[in-house]
């Protein structure tokens, strides 16, 4: 009898141990990573002039300060570096061939960004030498940079960022480079269906999640073009998890697109502008956006959850309303923390037919972004 009792007790203990181990394993396998993404970091001369110091250096840090805590709170923080840093040995410049001071890279990293995209229409503004200089610059800052490459080997290696046990692949494509030709196919990724499908298939084998940076669309348009929707569906059909849209310089809608296998893909058609000194346009161009989401990995699979939009304001003031080069005090603010007293000073207020106000920016946000993505701090 004692023998049976002992055997039964051992079975119970073994069951409890196995159950405890299994629960612990499941808990261990359940992983979470947070992501934030913003739009076009496009440094016009009026911006780098505002950042210039008496000793000839540049300091952009105060311009990012109002959103710094928000950016640093995410595990992965993405930004589209639209104006290239082609080398300080060349003259700094703006539209149409940008060259931004290299100091910007340090300030971007210090603000919390750790995933930088370079595939955009200005990538070749300073030629292949400028493209390669920027690659080396981000490497010196030990920050993941992708979208442009120095060799076919680099281009064919799928960029993977591993955070908290989750492997995130980052693919980047642009519609073009303002008529400037790449010297080799590997320098930058253009939209090409065969290449895109091949990249995604490869990335799927190497990662848990695929994010695509898509430089597409029409400038100044608040609605996605037919081509944007075409490629959004292609990305969804091929199994991409998230698409981050850039280039229109205004915000566009965000939605879930269902792929042919039933998978849902989050598509933010345009996050609009981030820090910039765009002279043309109106109040819509000073309203940028960011998207937050969580990547959850469990024994049941990987999912994109808790998607939240946040509108941003690119603030600046002006000394002489007749001279756009006299703008100063550039900074990016979350719209829900943007004070009316600053809005009243914004340079856009002095434009003819301007409808610049916090209330108008809030209304525009609601008219573009679906309410499922909005929270009390979205705008």
Automatic annotation (TrEMBL):
Domain Capsule synthesis protein CapA: 34-278
InterPro entries listed in its UniProt record: Capsule_synth_CapA, CW_Biosynth-Accessory, Metallo-depent_PP-like
Residue ranges crossing the lipid bilayer per the database entry: none
Top-rank lineage group of the source organism: Bacteria
Gene3D superfamilies (UniProt xref): 3.60.21.10
Similarity-based family: Belongs to the CapA family.
Protein name (Swiss-Prot/TrEMBL): Capsular polysaccharide biosynthesis protein CapA
Lineage of the species this protein comes from: Bacteria, Bacillati, Bacillota, Bacilli, Bacillales
